[in-house]
Amino acid sequence: MSKNSTSSDSEPPSTYNISMEQGKVYVVIVNYNAWEVVRECLDSLLESTYWNFEIVLVDNSEKHLEFAKYTKDLENDRITFIESEKNLGFAGGCNVGTKYVQQQGNYDYIWYLNPDTVVDAQALEKLIEKDLFYQTNSSKVGMIGSKQMIYDDPKEIHSLYKVSDNEHNIVHVTDEDSLSEGVLNGTEFVQYLTGSAMLVRREFIEDIGLMDEEWFLNFEEIDWQQKGSQKGWKIGLAIGSVIHHRVSYSIDSFNDGYYMTRNHLYFVQKYFPKDVIKVLLGKIFSINLLRAIIRLRWRWLKGFIFGVSDFYKKKRGRL
Hints:
By secondary structure, this protein is an alpha/beta fold. It contains 11 helices and 11 strands.
């Protein structure tokens, strides 16, 4: 059963009548050892008020017996299950789902959604509604995000969108009161979205291509969005679309430290090469590193050290 939440009053009411033929959506979910929470995600999707969608669940877990067990239990005519031969990472799993959707041919959007999310009944409808507004106003919007709440604290916002700070750290914006009137009414846009929930237009995917799988985990969606920005694509926000997110449900502490550190440095090197040393020094002397030391987060610290080392070794892809 989906969590209940009311849409924000700050977003103007829609003047658009959404029909179920408005646009075909494929929801692509990449699962990695999260079968315990996938059912709630799927159940919430199947309660959606917008019904012109199908679900593609790509399993990266490498546990073949679990795949057979859980997919049998979750069978539904609207869900296609795909088992990858190995853990391809987030980008690789998304690309498997995207290629399947492209083979079907009949799609207008792909909604990339984490398996540890639960969507409100109107979440997808509100996204399509906002996209209709952008199209009507000739805005070149390639993807739209939702308001993401923390699953265990439904009143606390996890992410509205993301911005880059002075050291090119990609940080969440969580203060709804800080949103400009332009972002709310669709005349201004946001910088980045978190990859846990992105409604992406077909035209964006055909123009920019698939996600780069060499990131494996973390920054693949930011890189994708950056490529789109360089070609004139914008990113929108549908504040009335609400999802609930169990943050970092299946990410190991070592992997979090490793991929976030290594890939952040790669991202800076790729787009802001003059700032690499400044960013590295900022990481070494950061409050986050000090906190990890004080709290004895040894696995995260080990991942951090390996991430810096492998960045200089030019290692890409899976560790």
